Amino acid sequence: MPSPDEVLVVYSTFPSPDKAAEVARVLVEEQLVACVNIIPTVRSIYRWQANVQDDSESLAILKTSRDRFPDLARRLVQLHPYELPEVIALPLAAGHPPYLAWVVGSVG
User: What domains, with CATH codes, occur in the chain?
Assistant: First the structure.
């Protein structure tokens, strides 16, 4: 069984749920992620180009293996519509072993 150290959760925000789903499908088809959860609306407040922005975005939560993260990050940046996409990987402290095995087995 894979250990939690082998699985990462990756966050990325998108301008819309449809764009997030479009990118998610490609990443799943290319076996860079096991699955993607999309939260349709989050409010993001951030500084961009010297201005404070307050926007609605969609949050994608992607699950992948640590080994596949570099390829996932490159492809996500290629597909992403933002000039500077959020690509943040978080390690797991623990997880349900069969689920972790499924994630690792689902990415090529």
Answer: 4-106 (3.30.70.120)
| Nearest CA-CA partner of 19 in 63, 74, 58, 64 | 58
Percentage of the chain surpassing pLDDT 90?
95
Alpha helices in 1-108 (DSSP H): 17-29, 69-79, 97-106
Alpha-carbon distance 84 to 49, whole Å? 11
pTM of the predicted protein model: 0.95
Residue count of the chain:
108
What gap in Å lies between CA 28 and CA 37, rounded to an integer? 11
Q: How many CB atoms lie within 10 A of CB 11?
A: 13
- Nearest of 90, 92, 81, 91 to residue 13 by alpha carbon: 81
